[in-house]
């Protein structure tokens, strides 16, 4: 037996007996309508929320908000882009995307976060390499808090999951805030069922 194997054997033998995890209650949610709470939290993190009645409204909003966008990659059927997203798309090929358009599975009112898996992003790098991320989100899909997220079956079954709260941001020691330093420069949540 090697030294490594002997060492690991001793660690395994010293493990405490397993015991059931405690049942964590769902704590009461703050008062207020979830959409309003989500919008307040996301705005505090530098994101923006807008309403839309149709996919055509979304297309018009993208054209108005990002008039200089040359490369738009959309993972949402009905919102046109000029860069295809598919399972075969090479993640690094999205490095020049100006606007990425995705649909969030659900949002978290407590934090203003949107949950994505590999199914929503199609290519995970879209959420990090695009300059601007536009997220379609159904207000009916909001959960109150993070405790509900971890109890959802889609959270447990996803191979990849991420909660996104606002655009990327960093601040130096003098408190100078810079958006988009390590990711998207803007995050726009579009309320659309």
From TrEMBL:
Cited Gene3D superfamilies: NagB/RpiA/CoA transferase-like (3.40.50.10420)
InterPro entries per the UniProt record, alphabetical: FTHF_cligase-like_sf (IPR024185), LUD_dom (IPR003741), NagB/RpiA_transferase-like (IPR037171)
Protein's recorded name: LUD domain-containing protein
Source superkingdom: Bacteria
Domain LUD: residue ranges: 54-190
Chain segments carrying region Disordered: 11-32
Pfam families from the UniProt entry: LUD_dom
